Predict the structure.
Amino acid sequence: MPVVYIDILFGVNLVLNCILLRAAGLLCKNSPPLWRTILGGAAGAAYAIAVFFPELGILSGLFFKLLASMIIVCIAFPLYSFSDFFKLIFVFYGVSLIFGGLSFALMFLTGWGANFGAVYSNGIFYLDIPVTALLSGAVAFYGLLRLGSRLFRLSLRRGARRKVIVELQGRRAELTALADTGNILVDPISHAPVIVAELDALKELFDLRARLSLSSENLQEGLSEIISRGVRARLIPFSSVGSEDGLMVGFIPDLAAVRDGGAFRPMKPCVIGVYPKPLSADRSYDALYNPN
């Protein structure tokens, strides 16, 4: 009878769970901190160890499997709505089924499973895979996922428009943002991406005095005015046609979210650059963002 090592069982499931969680995150455009992915993967690995023992076979039932997967997703991802939760659960199941199907095909068609002492118990597979092979395969698989995700994002048509909301000190403004892959502007301090927005589109965030200061050619005046109100702001250097060495006031919002289906999904940390003039001649959009 093959010998089952708990550390290998835990390690294999931890790595595979992390890969599946990151894959689900890429497909759902939800990229949590790595520590959350590892914690979720560890929870799944702990469940796999518990289920592997015949005495705990009750845990292999459908109810406990569904409950375990929900707990794993809740640990691994920040969830902002029920739609986020159900989307991640659905995609996580889909990725797991695809990965499992490919693994079964590889195992039975090539005898790969027998080479690594495959053991099956209560729906859990144990493979005594060398650490180097496991890590190499994991890195290669995740690298392909990243490459595929990047190629997909780059295939987005230039000109796609999205609704973006910006919140600051209890106030909210809604923008119509144009996807612009040429917008590579970043904050020189935090290196966060900059969403360039017309001042007029941000009028709900500032009172008249602040708007007049921000529209002034004296950028320091506008910067000082909003900083005095507790807004985290700075000057952002930029280059454009007709202005090779320009500056604009940028501020860090309390929240920036993009419409995803019927709900708004919080964006990664960003800076809102205040542009005093219209960005489009036909006023079809009032902000620019980089879809990548």
Notes: Residues 30 and 144 are 18 Å apart (CA to CA). Residues 82-110 form the longest helix (29 residues). The chain has a mean pLDDT of 78.
